[in-house]
Design brief:
homotetramer; 345 residues; alpha/beta; Rossmann fold; Dihydrodipicolinate Reductase, domain 2; six-stranded parallel sheet
Chain lengths: 345, 345, 345, 345
């Protein structure tokens, strides 16, 4: 049994971590923190948890948490995360950080897109926790930078093409659409029901902060520097990211050949499902689960390939992937606690 | 291991049965049927099931199914169900029927609201499968009439008041709202996205077929004949039923006293969660689970009590309750395979 | 041309007033105020208004507004409204107030449900602006208390029954469901997309502030004091209120007879549509319009009548009714600017 | 007054035509047809129309319609449209066809993507009714091919760039998302609420029938043959299309410069709103109206331009544009009956 603390438990990522952790047979949740709900049982904050978790929300006291926890999930906003993570590490905890603070390897890039970094010395040590692509580095890590939701959907969608040098990396265009839980549970006018429902828009065009994270991973996969156009959109659903990705093929393959490339690349990967040629992913088919569903279409007319990638932004895009990383770090079966069937409809 | 067949697997109730059954440790699904999708693997019908169930949809051949299955879930429309259930029973299968065909004890009442009954001799034998109220009769049953979704939410909401004779049964008014999956997966104009989304209406006012089923159970609980006003509404959500129930109190109790009555009545019941006095149920808090959440408010001004009852219509209102009945029949732990945490948001 | 100011233009009621006012041929909008967006053109706050209204949001300066405006719509929260309305009246403006501040005739009742009233001397003068029921008083009024959204749907639904003494007022149970725009545009966690979408709950059970307003009007109509059970619910749609109302009939009439009572009562009323016996209202059929659609069903079994009333909460429940009142006050055709066809789907 | 028939009135395009036509001051609707609802008043099919249109649905009898109508809107599926349009023309009616049957100039292209064409001799005469781009040809036309919804959003989004030769036409990638009303009102499983709600998927990837129509118009604008990648997605909203369009700039301009190009190109066009640089379109801002809102962003890093185009698919993408064409044909003010303010929220 591993002793777990969830720091920042009252957001959507926090409650999703708890949903998954209470069903994990090797986990003992010893502590949840929430500044906003300090003193309140977490099942009063989220009645969904009634009967599963009665812990009372604590303030974020690193020392008192580190006394009890082996591993800490930090589900805090960027900047808040790096204010406490060095102390957790110093106190002997392992940390899986769901913020963006340790995802970018280059301090200057981080500081260009976010703000000054207060613990840049940890950037080299932090392991980017995308198991299907970087599994071997994760098991021994002390600090996991859990990938962003958009970047996860995109990296898994493009890895087989880039690793096999089947496309021109300079041609990449990524059009992503995310459910509204990605915007978090804090009260913002732009996240109100009446602003999102029956609405649809692009945002952060040519300027979204996930761009450098996406480019960092794609550059690693392509072994050359990659720049992309990445356009996120806000989707009137609770959960789900669908990324539609366009690239020019170096040599035009048939759809069936491309699907075979993906099947081989992801052979043995439980959480990646390559769809048959006549079906394409839908965020509805992965709801509540750690799956990434991939569809691939070759367009002979334009010599491009179109990849469609679907995940649940709160699971494979956040809490589920964090559990997968925890399983690797703790030496558990990687699928433990994640064998969830999608909820449809 | 119990060998299970799911007859009528391609509707929403069918896929929900499969979602739950593939995660049940004592179940071996040996057969799924679908007239519409005969010959197609069920994971092509529902890509959500990819990686969990690869069975090919079969035609409904009672003999061939009965050779393999110990227990059959019939997820067919009413009338179609009673056309095959006597044969399954004759062939030695136990049957949990999710249609309305064996719920009403009085053949005349059934025939008034539906049509002629082709096996009325089974009505007396069939057990109404609402475990929290009729558990002792279920274990030995050969044929379970799995309760309707609306009736489940209402019977659980009213049982403590009626059994304790705290309300006037003649005063009952029940205003229910159901998610659209209750209308099934067949293509009907009234179930189209554009007809339901941004819309809300009552239907079947003073004439809905669940009325006699509701009254039958409430009459049993009250030990006097009960007639109610029951008004269903169509809610633009996928899942969930919320019933708001009004009754005149025989003697006005405080909200806290009424909550205590409910707590005692449902003491030991895992799947009923009586909410604290300052919180009321929301269908969002039970999504994907077998819970029935209950909220109770006493109104001293009007001397009435208002009960709010929330379930997931596809789980406690259909497939989950069916599994709970299966667990009882098979002698498994009643919660086996049903320990699901609600998916929020 | 009447010169109009909209005070509090940046909420949902404000933008709805502007949507209707820019299409009104006898209106000159001279001023819009918004504390939050002072200095910003209103079409930047609401790009929907681009091409229709370029006014810059002003601070709320009664003197400067009264110099220019003949009639002021106050779309402010309660309490904020009564802080400025006496000054507008003193400066010679007519006021149509969309808050609750002048709706209740009895100061003590107001102060029980809200807070201390700072201008109780105006309560007797204020006219409750529900034209179909109180038209004759509206034309000459200086201060209109524009009715609440729930109370409008309920009063119109019950007036024919109460005025004709066809029901027992003590038996009234009102189950209402409102779209989320009723909660306003301020950023609150409970109004976030992920909290409302795929969710449904009751709120304010036996304690909602619209209760005294509802009872005041129903008591006037019944000519006896009336107490009701009123339960509002939060509906995952942008717009629309549906109220389902239950009452015991004094003498049981057929559905067709009751419909005829309604047809006669609302004969000549453009904005009330009594539906035929085989159709019931849906909030989708009144979207964007000033209609109140009514359906009536008699239940001979229980001797009750069920009335279903549908309005758009932002139009007949707020801005549209306010325009209707303006038309009466200014001597315009009562339908002017309100001849809008519902937007379906 | 022009005498109008709406052929195929019971679909979403049909009811939208009626919504707009009943508010048009120069129109007399003389006839509506519906095979499915023959004999039923159209306000029983669509209660939204109660009080606006009481016409009874007729069968599609060309002769009887042509006796009464000057101009016919055909809102039929492709193939059904071309079965009657030659007869309407022969009988002296003008026709605005909302199907795809006369949009493609090249018979072979039509027959490749659809089926055999039964009146290819009319293809040359039919005028593609996109007024902002082809206004001068429309006024004198006898047969208007009303553009598709996707093609309208795309052509308006790209015309300024292509006409000014600012982009490389070979680089075009178009990622479009459409509300569900685009799928029509016929009962199909894929359009059910539970299949679309909380779901999102691409469809028709590299194979959608709007592709040749898009390419035909873009080729005309670019004055060279253009091939594109066009990917439609199904959006869980009733109305609205958002197209996100990517192209390589021939010479990189600033966002402000590009916006100025659009402002000049669409100077004087009421129905195209070029958004300021810090705001981007949202389908919510055009709901119910004939507007096309355009946002433009230059990405210096990748030397691409991203254009975002939003329309209401039922208005500018269908019925509204059809009215605009009618106004031009009949010599009315082009904006007549279309001065609608968007419904927000």
């Amino acid at each position: 049994m591993v002793k777990i603390a969830v720091v920042g438990a009252s957001g959507y990522t926090g409650v999703e971590l708890l949903r998954l952790l209470v069903g994990h047979p090797e986990v003992d949740i010893c502590c949840v923190t929430s500044r906003q709900h300090e003193g309140l049982p977490i099942n009063r904050v989220f009645p969904s948890l009634s009967g599963f978790c009665e812990l009372v929300c604590e303030p974020l006291d690193v020392g008192r948490i580190a006394e009890r926890a082996d591993l800490v999930f930090t589900a805090l906003p960027h900047q808040s995360a790096m204010e406490v993570i060095p102390d957790f590490l110093a106190a002997g905890c392992k940390v899986i950080d769901l913020s963006a603070d340790y995802r970018l390897k280059d301090q200057a890039v981080y500081e260009h897109w976010y703000q000054e970094h207060s613990s840049p010395e940890l950037l080299a040590e932090a392991v980017y926790g995308l198991p299907e692509l970087f599994r071997e580095q994760i098991a021994g890590a002390r600090l996991i930078a859990n990938p962003g939701c958009y970047p996860t959907s995109i990296a898994l969608g493009l890895a087989p093409l880039l690793k096999n040098k089947l496309i021109d990396p300079a041609s990449l265009i990524i059009d992503s659409k995310s459910g509204t839980s990605g915007a978090g549970r804090s009260a913002k006018q732009g996240s109100l029901f009446c602003e999102v429902n029956e609405a649809f828009k692009a945002y952060g065009v040519a300027s979204h902060r996930h761009t450098p994270e996406i480019e960092q991973t794609l550059s690693t996969l392509a072994a050359v520097p990659v720049q992309v156009n990445f356009t996120p959109h806000l989707l009137p659903v609770n959960r789900g990211i669908l990324s539609t990705i366009y690239a020019s093929q170096n040599q035009v393959l048939e759809t069936a050949e491309l699907i075979e490339v993906y099947r081989q690349f992801y052979s043995g990967e439980t959480f990646v499902r390559v769809m048959p040629g006549d079906q394409l992913p839908d965020v509805a088919w992965v709801r509540g689960t750690n799956f990434c569903d991939l569809g691939i279409v070759s367009d002979g007319r334009t010599q491009r390939v179109i990849v469609v990638s679907a995940i649940d932004n709160l699971v494979k895009g956040a809490a589920g992937q964090a559990l997968q990383n925890m399983n690797l770090i703790c030496g558990f079966n990687e699928q433990l606690g994640l064998g969830i069937v999608p909820l449809f409809p």
